Amino acid sequence: MMRLANIDGRAALVFGDRALDVFEAGGFGPDPMDVLADWPAFSEWARSVPASGGPYDPLRLGPPVPRPRQVFAVALNYPPHAAEAGFSPPADPLVFTKFPTCIAGPHETVELPGDRVDWEVELVAVIGRGGHRIRSSHALSHVAGYMVGQDLSERRVQASGKPPQFSLAKSFPGFGPTGPHLVTELDPDASITCLLGEEVVQEASVADMIFDVPSLVARLSAVCPLLPGDVIFTGTPAGVGNRRTPPRYLTAADVLTSRIDGLGELVTRFR
Hints:
By secondary structure, this protein is α+β, with helices and mostly antiparallel strands.
């Protein structure tokens, strides 16, 4: 299993509490996007690299994929979340976009643009090898790895149109925290959890998704050619704030922790 990080804007392999600068060790990068652009060659090289490097400060981590060209997101991909939103589970993936300028790292302080900002912890898949009309049986060979993500949403903006629109409400600066690393392997039964302070507000298994990662890669690539470094927010479990009674939204006093087993956690603060 490989862990790829963005430390001060440079690609690094992470081995426990140590990090190895990729460019200095092997000539790939130094920009993490350069590594993703040459993913087949890089991943082959990285598998042969012994655990090495020096200590690093996790607070220096940036988004593992800092400038994706395409950011896809999926709505209502867990049955309990579809139910709490008042919908039946969809027969096909419900896809929208987050604009790439919203992407942020695992230790961000995000400015609240309004009083109805909501949380949505998500598994994020990263494309390593592009393609068009990828079959689901081949899809995982196109996936570089996985990250923890948050699909932050300003619900007032989201509901301002008739019908509601998603993309702008989910694309304010910092509204796409990701990380802490890009990890090449995922436990298919990994738990996904979101905490507000010490309170667990979302908890599920990634196995509960209606459409798994291969299905989503096949569906998206049937329409859009996928590119190295594209990211896919795969949907959130039940427990979001605007479906609570009464609704609950993020404030400057809150600390949001997002976790997926084996992938790590994000800690997001607000101002």
